[in-house]
Amino acid sequence: MAWTWRFEKADGTETEPAVQPEDFPTQSDAESWLGEVWRELLEGGTDQVTLQEDGNTVYGPMSLHSATE
């Protein structure tokens, strides 16, 4: 099983992330990575992310913007 992130603009179109991800062996590893780099992704033009396991959506899209924006 591989856990991956899909990086999107606010309108749902896929975008190239500012930080290159990897395939993660667990959901926890994927979420930990996102927690470390989400600010860089946001600054690089990613508005939201979707977590996928073997190509199937687990959850998302999840905004990288704060709730006050």
Question: Can you give keywords for this protein?
Answer:
Mtc1 family protein, globular, 1 helix, alpha+beta, 25% helix, 3 strands, 69 residues, three-stranded antiparallel sheet
Topology:
Blueprint: E1 3-8, H1 27-43, E2 48-53, E3 56-63
Antiparallel strand pairs: 1-2, 2-3
Instruction: Please work out how many helical segments DSSP would assign.
Output: 1
Shape annotation: globular
Largest sheet geometry: 3 strands, antiparallel
Spatial arrangement of strands, main beta sheet = 1-2-3
Number of domains: 1
Order of helices and strands: EHEE
Binned, the helix content reads 10-25%
Kindly, what is the distance between the CA atoms of the first and last residues, rounded to a whole number of angstroms? 35 Å
What's the Cα radius of gyration?
11 Å
Number of strands: 3
Query: Which structural class fits the helix and strand makeup?
Result: alpha+beta
Low-confidence blocks of residues: none
Q: How much of the polypeptide forms β-strand, as a percent range? A: 25-35%
Mean pLDDT: 94
